[in-house]
């Protein structure tokens, strides 16, 4: 390859890396490390084919600067946690929007399977939801309190128990990705079928509107299970589709990226647990406007943070690069 073509092909990447090193733009550490690996590869190529060129001098200088920045121990920022959720994670997560879309579509397909099956087979809900839950709910419906099951237990006890269980489910959805993504797909499929069966079960009793009580906490809860599933697929797919990396390196990167995604869901699981423990039990007495406002705000929060905000931040970075 001619030197001019080599420079033209990689110039934008080098400039981006240089700006990130000097703090002109924000970039997550994993991407920074990935760019560094690419930079060293470019340096080796230039040393072989363009010795004593200005391109080699530039790459030598940039690599030395990068090595100092990446490997020199420095004091941790006091705002590291804030920076992770406000900047580092959203910038990082943008690359996995397509995986999130596939996860969402698969979950919707599982909901449809659960819904159609329950609609056509009265015993399916018992198979999926369990006899005890179905019998208790039917009894509550007869007593005029279809959602009474969500009023049981203390508020704080329910909050802690529900939150811990939800986080456990999220971690399992991620961890099962190690089974070549099949484990994560199973978790998503079983949860999707359960949700579809649950909704259709109430529909068959003419109580579909009552499920709005469940969506008070379920809006966030279901979304973050999907996102945790996305984390599992990121890990599993990294081994099956390593791209330009070796399988070992690709898997290590995928496992780390997936863990970062599932960690981001913890505050949302806590919010969902709080709503279920302290608010859902009053859903039946709550004005419809207030209930649907909570559902809408919950939906907007998750969609904004995981979809809209990463796009906005990445566009700002790209606009800054073009301006400078």
Automatic annotation (TrEMBL):
Keyword Translocase: no
Keyword Iron: no
Keyword tags: Membrane, Transmembrane, Transmembrane helix
Any single Pfam family the record assigns to this protein: SpoIIM
Transmembrane segment boundaries: 100-119, 156-176, 183-202, 222-241, 261-283, 289-307
PANTHER family named among the record's database cross-references: SLR1478 PROTEIN
Stated name of the protein: Uncharacterized membrane protein SpoIIM, required for sporulation
